Amino acid sequence: xxxxxxxxxxxxxxxxxxxxxxxxxxxxxxxxxxxxxxxxxxxxxxxxxxxxxxxxxxxxxxxxxxxxxxxxxxxxxxxxxxxxxxxxxxxxxxxxxxxxxxxxxxxxxxxxxxxxxxxxxxxxxxxxxxxxxxxxxxxxxxxxxxxxxxxxxxxxxxxxxxxxxxxxxxxxxxxxxxxxxxxxxxxxxxxxxxxxxxxxxxxxxxxxxxxxxxxxxxxxxxxxxxxxxxxxxxxxxxxxxxxxxxxxxxxx
Amino acid sequence: xxxxxxxxxxxxxxxxxxxxxxxxxxxxxxxxxxxxxxxxxxxxxxxxxxxxxxxxxxxxxxxxxxxxxxxxxxxxxxxxxxxxxxxxxxxxxxxxxxxxxxxxxxxxxxxxxxxxxxxxxxxxxxxxxxxxxxxxxxxxxxxxxxxxxxxxxxxxxxxxxxxxxxxxxxxxxxxxxxxxxxxxxxxxxxxxxxxxxxxxxxxxxxxxxxxxxxxxxxxxxxxxxxxxxxxxxxxxxxxxxxxxxxxxxxxx
Lengths: 252, 252
Hints:
The structure is a homodimer. Chain A is an alpha/beta fold. Chain A has two domains: 7-164, 3-Layer(aba) Sandwich (Molybdenum Cofactor Biosythetic Enzyme, Chain A), CATH 3.40.980; 175-249, Alpha-Beta Plaits. Helices cover 37% and strands 27% of the residues of chain A. Chain A has helices at 16-19, 27-37, 52-63, 83-91, 99-109, 117-120, 154-164, 185-198, 226-242; strands at 7-14, 40-48, 68-72, 95-97, 124-126, 130-132, 141-144, 147-150, 175-181, 203-211, 214-223, 247-249. In chain A, the strands form three sheets. A six-stranded mixed sheet of chain A has the order 2-1-3-8-7-6, with helices on both faces. A four-stranded antiparallel sheet of chain A has the order 10-11-9-12, covered by helices on one side. In chain A, strand 10 and strand 11 form a beta hairpin. Chain A is elongated and about 70 Å long. Chains A and B meet through helix 1, helix 2, strand 2, helix 8 and strand 10 of A and helix 1, helix 2, strand 2, helix 8 and strand 10 of B. Chains A, B: This is Molybdopterin-binding protein. Chains A, B: It comes from Sphingomonas lycopersici.
């Protein structure tokens, strides 16, 4: 049997507003779900402050050990937007105005007061970069090698992900199935572990909840092999029912 | 002038369910806000998979360079709950059943079917650890030195944070003020940078939005010095108004 190649990505979320608790991050879940459709696994995430050393450290640690690296945040026109400079420093390249980005911004701001110097800051890219289309607002995203520099505002990031859909090489997407049961986790822990052991390449996650005064859990069965997921889920449902915990397909 | 001591914490979020995009993390924002009230800054976050090597690497990297380290997730009774073993490995200590935790679980499960072996897995702690009270469900959190091992389910984590309130040494909490304006960021970027430069120790974050077909931004002024925040916010409001962008206190 040939070992299946697993494609991985990492994400660096850049922003004091996430670390202060002011803003609830939405990009981790959004990018994770999008990556899975591309057959790429989100392997690790770091959330760092708007400080160049912090960004450089995270980018350099993660880009060498993953197939792709995404960043979100810090690509606007204000003083706290330092992502482009930090990534250029991490890669050891200069920062240039990208002619394509200048053209995009000049077109976008033609009817909005003109492309001022402050606005053209958003055309600055690490040397050697390409653009990622942004249909939502002026400033494009940036691609340099396996590194993707995205917006912080989630709906703008969503548009950039759309523009990238189908362009990244990946493997088989992970398929998942969920069943739920009003079972206390601690009652069925052995049974779950046995089900995971019996199906190679399958990972079972157990997510407890407390509702209506009762304890239950949802079980998420994940594998790139859809047949394995089906088989494992069916056998687990039988085992849980036999233990006195009937299951609900799709989760509770 | 004596340099003000800044207390920092890091957070390791442990869980495949966050990295797959299945579950939206809530603990980063919740812990960040709680830490700020304690006078401690959340300096960095890593989200890692349910794999021992990944947990060990993150814990060892972050605990030495922060005053406190928190983890969330992976302390239940099932096979995917490996946090205690991974942290014990990171610290180079063994894993023991904590007598206090055994007592808590025996009491909790006395009327719920008894403290089975699977349930007593939740009494396992790295050697030398103390317990963090959990008023929500059976299994306590765990403290070992500057390391705090918390639940993954946000409302259980919230209860554990309550139990820790006021027990951690910190500095002055960061105070923040927000003003908003219907100003395109790129129009007022220089003005913002100047306001930040003019007030030592103050950080201004600029958070753009697009609403009702118009562009605006909220500006968050942060410092441990409440007077500095007040002054900077007042001067920024005047400068923005003079540039043609009246402001709204508290943000838009």
